[in-house]
Structure formats: C-alpha cells, structure tokens
Amino acid sequence: MTTTIQTRHAVHYTQSETMTSAELRDTFMIETLFAAGEIHAAYTHYDRMLVAGAMPTTAPLTIGADLAKTVGTDYLLERRELGLINIGGKGKVVADGTTYALDFQDGLYLGMGVREIAFESEDSANPAKFYINSAPAHASFPSRIVTKADAIENHLGDQLTCNKRKLYQYIHPKVLPTCQLLMGLTRLEPGSVWNTMPAHLHDRRMEAYLYFEIPEDAFVVHLMGRPQATSHLILRSEQAVLSPPWSIHCGSGTASYAFIWSMAGDNQSFTDMDFVPMKDLK
C-alpha cells in the first residue's frame, strides 16, 4: 500500500497574482487523487483541510500513522472529523469495526475519535473511489452514511444561462450535526456548463472542488483569484482545486460534468456568500 502526502501552504492574493500558470497549478491544484491501490492526500493550511482520495483494489487501504503525523496527532481523527463520497464502484469503509457499505454517490461521515479506518472495493475491476475531506473538530458526533436519497436536493440555475444544475447537500446541518465540515455534490444538466455562477466568495471559509465525470477529451476552466484580478486553471476529470477565502470559485466546462464541493471555516451557513456581479469580473 502506498500513501502519498503533499502539504500546501497558504499564500496572499498578491503572491498569486504574480504566479505563472505552472506555479498556480503547483499551489492550488491537486492533479492526482486516485491511483489503483493507493491513497493520495493533500494537507492544506487553508482552514487545515485535508483532501484525499482512496482507490482500493484487491486489498484494503488503511489510514495509517503517516497521515496522523501530518496533522500532529496519534491517529488522524483524534481531533478531526471526516466526510467522504464514493464516485466509483461499490465499496465499504470499516471504521473501528463498523462496516459501512457505500454504492456510487453514497457519502459517509465519521466523527472525531474514530481510530481505525479501512477502505475496500467490492470488485477490483470496478473499484470504489472514495473522495475524502477532513477538518479539525472540537466535539464528537455520530458517524453515519448519507446516501444520495438522504441528501437535500436543490434545483439551481437556468438552461438559458447554461448553468442549470442539481446541488445535493450531504454533510450539512439540516442533514446531520458536524463541527465545521460541509460537503455536497453538484451535477450539471445536459447542455449546461457553468457552475456556481454568478461567482461568489466567502471570506470566512475556504472551499475545495473535485471535478469528475468530465469526458476524456474535455476539461473545465476553473476561475480563481480576486474578482478584479482573475486567473484560470485547466482541470481534467478527478482533479481537485483549493479555493482560498479571498478567491472566487466558478468555472465552465467544454461538456457537462459533476463536482464535489467541501468547506471548512468559521460557520456552516451555506448562504453566507458574497456574490460578485458579473460585470465586475476582470
């Protein structure tokens, strides 16, 4: 079993505005999250979010001491909570002896204090892909599965503006209690390509996006930066991007796609957004 861990330090927006395309990618993108039989993780200094992907095949994958060392504790969830959504084949997560069976697009929340976590696939030829987010926690809440049916479904956007989409709130105060982690999935309707438009930012919370179900010959142009000084990143399927509190986060694809969003920070108010008029983007 291989676990690869990166650390991403926070930067001021004045630094980002002088970066080359390669430097922006190195600072804000996570280009590899899923590899057969491996765990890939990125620890970011934006709200201490941990972003990871686990893709078990013939053998289980376990969260070990290396990830715990990264966050400075004896085990990963000693002072943290964790959420995940499966974007692959059927699998299961075994947490402190309790088995959680997860189908495609099922989610799972694990509360602070869970010590042992293992990931397995039902079929190694169609492996599960567990997209994982973890944030610091101050209290322990019950672990539980959140299926797509459990998630709160929101209908947003319009076909006329090419941003008609369904937003599913998985880890959200109206679904289950958590300390600070928020997590959900958005799927664009056929013919729509814009996500999260009009653009917004929230100075009190960071956000991460995992883009997936992008056709092989397509991509998403992810916009970031201050509204008056935007930059862009080109993302392919199953790549993630970190969005600092000072940055907008929106994008447009060359085909329909889906993405998982996650947040951590001062509050859990999903509507705590500072919208940016489209005429103000530069």
Automatic annotation (TrEMBL):
Family matches, as InterPro entries: KduI, KduI/IolB_isomerase, KduI_N, RmlC-like_jellyroll, RmlC_Cupin_sf
Gene3D superfamilies linked: Jelly Rolls, pectin degrading enzyme 5-keto 4- deoxyuronate isomerase, domain 1
Binding site for Zn(2+): 200, 202, 207, 249
Family, as annotated: Belongs to the KduI family.
Protein name (record): 4-deoxy-L-threo-5-hexosulose-uronate ketol-isomerase
Required co-factors: Zn(2+)
Keywords from the UniProt entry: Isomerase, Metal-binding, Zinc
Functional pathway: Glycan metabolism; pectin degradation; 2-dehydro-3-deoxy-D-gluconate from pectin: step 4/5
Recorded catalytic activity of this chain's protein: 5-dehydro-4-deoxy-D-glucuronate = 3-deoxy-D-glycero-2,5-hexodiulosonate
A single MF term (Gene Ontology): 4-deoxy-L-threo-5-hexosulose-uronate ketol-isomerase activity
